[in-house]
Fold this sequence. Notes:
The complex is a heterodimer.
Chain A: H1 9-12, H2 16-19, E1 23-24, E2 27-30, E3 36-52, E4 55-62, E5 70-74, E6 78-85, E7 94-95, E8 117-123, E9 128-133, H3 139-144, E10 148-154, H4 164-170, H5 175-178, E11 181-190, E12 200-203, H6 209-212, E13 215-218, E14 223-229, E15 236-241, E16 246-250, E17 259-262, E18 264-268, E19 272-277, E20 285-290, H7 294-298, E21 303-308
Parallel strand pairs in A: 1-5, 3-6, 5-10, 11-14, 13-21
Antiparallel strand pairs in A: 2-3, 3-4, 6-8, 7-9, 9-10, 11-12, 14-19, 15-18, 15-20, 16-17, 16-19, 20-21
Chain B: H1 11-45, E1 61-69, E2 72-79, E3 87-92, E4 100-102, E5 112-117, E6 127-133, E7 138-143, H2 154-176, H3 179-182, H4 187-218, H5 225-245, H6 252-279, H7 287-305, H8 315-337, H9 342-370, H10 381-398
Helix pairs in contact in B: 2-6, 2-7, 2-8, 4-5, 4-6, 4-7, 4-9, 4-10, 5-9, 6-7, 6-8, 6-9, 7-10
Keywords (chain A): Copper, Metal-binding, Oxidoreductase, Repeat
Family (chain A): Belongs to the multicopper oxidase family.
Subunit structure (chain A): Homotrimer.
Amino acid sequence: MITVGGVDEARNGFDPTKLLTDWDRGTVSQLPDGRTLRTFEITAEDKEIEIAPGIMFLAWTYNGRVPGPSLRATEGERLRIVFKNYGSHPHSMHFHGIHAARMDGVPGAGLVAPGEEFVYEFDARPFGCHLYHCHALPLKRHIHKGMYGAFVIDPDPTRHPEYEAVARSRLLGTAENAEWQELVMVMNAFDTNFDGKNEVYAVNTVAHAYAKKPIKILRDKPVRVYLINVIEFDPINSFHLHANFFEYFNQGTTLTPTLKTVDLITQCQAERGILEFHFTEHEPGLYMFHPHQSEFTELGWVGMFDVVETVS
Amino acid sequence: MNQAGRPPSNAATTLPVGRPGRASLFWIAIPFTVLGLAMAWLIGTDPLSSFRNGAPPVEKLTFERTILGSDGVRLLVRAGGSQPMTIAQVQVDDAYWQFTQTPPGPIARGATAWVQLPFPWVVGEAHGVKILTNTGATFKREIPVAVATPTVDSMSFVSQAALGVFVGILPVAIGLMFYPVLRGVGRNGMDFLLALTVGLLAFLVIDAVAEALELAGEAAALFQGPVMVILTTMGSFLLLMAVGRSRGTPTGLALSTFIALGIGLHNLGEGLAIGASFASGAADLGIFLVLGFTLHNITEGIGIAAPILKVRPPLWTFAGLTLLAGGPAVAGLWIGSLAYAPQWSALALAVGAGAILQVIAEVGSLLVRRSGETHVSFFTPAAMTGLATGAGLMYVTAMLVKI
């Protein structure tokens, strides 16, 4: 069955439906050498959030939300992440990407004490669907308390002439990309009683959010899901789409699918990828998606795509 | 204003008498005033705020009744936290489930609420209910074997009554049937039988207190289970001693009646326990088990008969004694099968334990009186053998019913 009641989104400060398409693109400027410099401002803060109706969780957050802001950049850009720690514990930002050891966001390299600040700087590469998370110790607790987020690097079409059209469709802001319905989904879970087991499972934090309020999908537009697994305590998570099959790009670092025509993929902790599918030949209706670990499903991680002809 | 018994002989003596009245009123008012001021000061100025270290409130939830029916699972929970507790969600077998709480809202410390879950439980299988509060704390109730909780309808009442007759009334009646045979015993035989009664009662009192303490351990902390059990046992013992001795030391039929009452109260507790374990599916009602209880309780009938061997009471008193000692088993089964909270069963067992202590004291003192001036009292071979036989018989036959 399903959790009883609703979550106060205003108090939480974030709405699961809006999180799906809420990209943080930072601010853009030109470097002297002509390259693009993209700057993100991130703060760490303690915040009590409602993860399921009536269940409050003392989270550690990036920018007051769980998951943290979905950062989006383009391959080859210079990235500058200004990180201020307003939390009660030391925190960091460890990016899954290519960067110098100094920028790794681990103890000794970018671990930020409360009240302090650090600027991570590196090039955006490789393109793909990545993530960032806090790498302070103890690691399990810093991650499962809510310190993680999506980090997506779009491919630069000029660097991939053989798949330029595909690359353009992945690049946020192009006309080709606008043809897609893009969603970011971070699969997470919460151990509310600190027994090393999760009590609440979800995608984008709030249990059953998309089951109670299905995600509207236009039938004639393809869907691209940036899927990231940040679950703790359970070794793997999965994604199963009902009544449909999809193409899968593991870690999003390729422009051709790594798995074709599948309706289920598994991801271990911190694994991620891109799913592409469409409902053009389906009749409108509610199409379920959930991990095929039934226990996760029944503990909150389940949602619905509401396939419609036009958005009302 | 005059105090009783003091003659108002003159004004000079009556006036000072009124003063102690007012004075004592004054002296009573002082501690209460200080208490009131202390409370007002605590609430008003909150001097304990420095003790608040950011720790969440202590939460405690006790499950008192679990009722499985055609409409799902109903649980009676009692809150025992430092602050009112809020049930946020309920899981059954690690799945969030629809639930309704009656009455709704936060549950005050010591208060109870029903949680109703429309869950399709499976007969004979295990289930687990987990309640999550608003802080994410969890409280779990295991249902080891799911069986429908008996409801108050005539069918189950009749079958439970039949069961009660087998485990309570029949064995006492059989034990009393030894009466004609036992009448012929000599002095040593009588000592043996009285000591046997003390031995079996000693077994029962230990068994009852142990079981009461175990049940009390399951009850909410605010009932202070072990203290409640011990105080109730002592209170019941002293009260029955006072009643029993109000017309002199009980002997003969009076003593037999007290033994029957003590055993009856114990059988009430035993019935509660059997009823509860069948209601919770913890025990399967096999013929072997029922026969075990029958055998186990026959010794009780012999114990009741011992004090009246030399008085030849009318026949109807045997029926009365049988009902008094065995009948409560039927009532216990009825009540126990409705899955009542553990503290009430513990309380019933504790009252029974006190009653048994009283008869141990009375039968023991009878044994001592019988020994007269020899002062050997308990320590004759006959009495020692009787004690060992009574306790041993009960212990060995109990092996048939302990699972």
